[in-house]
User: What shape does this take?
Amino acid sequence: MLISKEEFDKIFPAEYKRLLLECVNGGLGDYNNLNYYSAEARRDHTPSARAILRHCHIVARMNRTLMERHDIRVLNRRGRILFIFNDKLQCSIKKFDSRLRTSSNPTKQADDFKAQLPLDLDEPAELANFFTGYKYDRAEAYYDVYITYPHDEQNYWEWKISGAEIKEFMLNPSANIDDIGTVSMKKRRVHIRQDAQKEAKDAG
Assistant: This one.
């Protein structure tokens, strides 16, 4: 059974969305850290190598963040790292193309995930699958972070959780996430910092 964006929002609170956003931003920032990879080394990376390394850093950030939490489980299902939120939602980290589609090796597991089917016999049938990932512009100078809910090869819905649309999920009016350099929320207003776009480009 497919769930709507509104139904998803009810069972996936702002805290979880902030956690995902922080880990994606942090992982992408790790790849751009000159202490890890020099500019020369990054020029040698193929597009697939860049995607793999960014994915590794995002997943590592998630693993470190979740070490002392019991409401989010980490599973490795035949090489696919999944994050299970309250035994209701199952997340896979991905890079998105310009149409917010993901690319995977053509396997039954990948097809089942997109088709909203259980990946194992012991998995709850009501567990919903979704992707969290990033989409860079063509020059890889700027990116946005999205949650997508797949239905076979299409997206049933998409949710941008970075940039101006962050106000859609920041339910706590006193929330402040200046540490990731994107948005401040105070007194029920969204303030996009003037230097946010420059910082995002520098991080890209």
Summary: Strands lie at 72-77, 80-85, 89-95, 128-136, 143-151, 154-160, 183-186, 189-192. The CA atoms of residues 182 and 196 lie 6 Å apart.
